[in-house]
Every structure is written in structure tokens, then in C-alpha cells.
Write a structure and sequence with these properties.
single chain, Immunoglobulin-like, 2 domains, six-stranded mixed β-sheet, four-stranded antiparallel β-sheet, 2 helices, 28% helix
Length: 173
């Protein structure tokens, strides 16, 4: 437990020290929690001369896209591990935000999402998007269940020891 707390502290410290990255697709927040459903936003700047007409994100194994949403006028389709937004257009120099609801059924660590920006002229710009998977949290309900089981085992052990002591005492008299 102490090791997990130290690891969590190190990850959060690194996230706090890292400055905002510019000029590429960035996840906000830059983390999700293992074994939980979480929402991230992907800020996608158009750095080209032409208009961006499609945005695609592919997630790695162990991560499921639960839902996706985006700017007005963009339609989204989710197919397996890929979400694709189309039908809109993003002017040069502008930034759009695309949202994902992810179920991270993977171990803690760093994962990579693959983002593609597609343009009307057929051009494609690919960006790796780093996302940190934090260790799963234990809920108070899980802790209470564990405490109840341990307490019940303790009561049974004490009762068994008491019965054994009474039996031994009866034999001695």
C-alpha cells in the first residue's frame, strides 16, 4: 500500500511539473484511473493551411471507448477501439475539443492513443497522445466489506479458542 501511495505521489508530481504542451493534440486531464470509467478532452489544433475535416482517435487494448462527443456540427462514430469525428471543419490556426469517455481496464502506467487529423486535400497529421493510467482506488464500501470479513473471522477464532479452553478445563477437573 505504501509503494502504491509513493507511486501515485510521483505520478501526480510529474503531472504537476509538466508544462502545457503546445502544437499537438493534448489530453486533459492527462490521466485516467485503472478499473474506472473516466472522461478526457482532446484539444486538437489545426496547424496547417487547409481546413481539418476529420479527427480520429484509436485507443490501445485494455481501454474501451464508452462514449464520444465533440464540437457542434461534427458527427461522431465509435467502432471498436476507434472514434471518428467528421462533417465539420476546423479553420487554420483554430483549436477544437473532442471528448472521450474511456473504461481503462488496464494496469497502471503510460498508454498511447493515436490521433489522426485529416484534411480536405487528403493530408493526414498523426499525433501520439500520452495518457497516464493511475492505480485503481479502493472504495470505502470495499474497505468496510473487508473489515467485516476480518472481524467475523476474528470472532470465530476467539469462539473456537474459548470452546477449546472450556473443553481442556473440563478434562482437567
Amino acid at each position: 500500500m505504501r509503494r502504491a501511495s509513493l507511486a501515485m505521489g510521483a505520478v501526480l508530481a510529474a503531472l504537476g511539473v509538466a508544462g502545457p504542451a503546445a502544437a499537438h493534440v493534448v489530453a486533459q486531464p492527462p490521466y485516467v484511473t485503472a478499473q474506472e470509467v473516466g472522461t478526457i478532452s482532446l484539444d486538437s489544433p489545426n496547424e496547417r493551411e487547409g481546413r481539418m475535416t476529420e479527427f480520429t482517435v484509436k485507443v490501445p487494448p485494455g481501454v474501451e471507448i464508452v462514449d464520444a462527443h465533440g464540437p457542434e456540427a461534427w458527427q461522431v462514430a465509435v467502432k471498436g477501439s476507434t472514434a471518428t469525428w467528421s462533417g465539420g471543419n476546423l479553420a487554420p490556426g483554430a483549436t477544437a475539443t473532442f471528448g472521450l469517455v474511456l473504461d481503462a481496464r488496464t494496469d497502471p502506467g503510460t498508454i498511447r492513443l493515436d490521433a489522426d487529423q485529416r484534411y480536405g486535400d487528403g493530408g493526414v497529421v498523426r499525433w501520439p497522445v500520452s495518457l497516464t493510467v493511475l492505480p485503481a482506488k479502493s472504495s470505502p464500501a470495499q474497505n468496510l466489506r473487508l473489515a467485516a470479513v476480518v472481524g467475523l473471522i476474528g470472532v470465530l477464532v476467539i469462539a473456537a479458542m474459548g470452546a477449546l479452553a472450556l473443553r481442556t478445563r473440563a478434562r482437567l477437573h
